[in-house]
Amino acid sequence: MAVRTVPIDFVRSAVATAERLGVDIGLLLGRAGVAPELLEQDRARVTVDQVAATMRQLWRITGDELFGLGPAPVPRGAIRLVGFGLVACPDLGSAIERFGEYQRLLPGFPPMAVTTEGGRTRCTLDTSVLAAGEELLTVFLLAALHRIVSWGIGRRVALRQAEFPYPRPRNVADYDLVFGAPLVFDAAIAAITFDSELLRAPLTRSEADLIDWTRNAPIDVLSRRDYGTSLAEQVRKILTRGLSGGATAERWPTADEVAKRLSMSPQTVRRKLGEEGTSITQIREDILRDAAVASLVRGDETVESLSARLGFSEPSAFRRAFRRWTGSPPGSYRGASPV
Fold first, then answer.
1. In which domain, by residue range, is 118 found?
2. What is the pLDDT along the chain (339 residues), one digit of tens a residue?
């Protein structure tokens, strides 16, 4: 499975929350394995495990499912207790209806509403009740809603649209990976939309499954499924094979080979990727960057062996590339796994 990283923005948001709560930021970052200097680099990336470690620390500190950002605390474990009442429902539609009845038990949770029209079901979250500027919490809540629905029926739910009540962010490509659907920004309210036929899908999970799923939180929400719908994601899947099994001798697919696998002309691939703000070269660099960050955080390779595995002629070339990708030297990431 290809390694993915996420923008430093996720950790920045957690740090901003911690600062408001008077938490020791150094301790928080140390336990997440994130070097403080990375917060100053807009290009910095972190692993899903690092973000999860940060969020778990905030959960522990605040005792609140929403990290103290909601209109009222949502005590730790409250969502799981509600889940016990939902897994007994026969299908997704009845579970959503029951959750509507349970909302009064969660006064700190953003109000959710569900409407069905023209074969589509739209779930909205009124995130205006959250602390101002918490865009990343909005993403987390919508992603969590999507993942929970998919988990409950035991299969991926293809979203038809995802809406966000704020301007288009700079890292919009990460949104496609998370939601795999047409994205609408500056929307009136946060929402996801899916086919109404899924409301009849039976729930397949038990209470034991729910306990296991929540014990692993928030990994299953943060982990990017293979949901990307853009051409860039299709190209990434093809190019990722260049690093499969860590085989350094395996060459990258050429632009012509990529186009052939997509049943397109090379010119069409270039044009469509350009419209998405990327290119084959950029996607290849993103793959190398994510693989490098993940390895350095794990700390199980020397810079020399990592640079060779990723196909660089010498470590100095890798170091230059890494600084270009992330704004920091490899040493800022090396061996920084959460403690």
1. 78-222
2. 467 788 888 788 888 888 887 888 888 888 888 999 999 998 899 988 888 888 888 888 888 888 877 888 889 889 899 999 999 999 999 999 999 999 888 888 899 999 999 899 999 999 988 876 568 788 888 988 998 998 999 888 889 999 999 998 877 777 877 887 889 999 999 999 999 999 999 999 999 999 988 887 787 777 655 545 578 888 988 888 766 544 444 578 889 999 999 999 999 999 999 887 789 999 999 999 999 999 999 888 999 999 998 989 999 999 999 999 999 999 999 765 555
E runs forming strands in 5-136? 5-7, 45-47, 112-117, 120-125
Question: Which run of H or E residues covers position 159?
Answer: strand 159-164
Tell me, yes or no, whether 218 and 269 share the same domain: no
Residue 294 lies in a domain: yes
- In a domain, residue 338? The reply is no
Name the token pair of 116: 């069905």
- Please check whether residues 193 and 261 belong to one and the same domain: no
Statement to judge: residues 286 and 151 lie in one domain: no
**Region for 270 from its dihedrals, namely left if φ exceeds 0, alpha if ψ lies in -120 to 50, beta otherwise:** alpha
For residue 339, tell me if it sits in a domain: no
**Structural domains of the chain, count:** 3
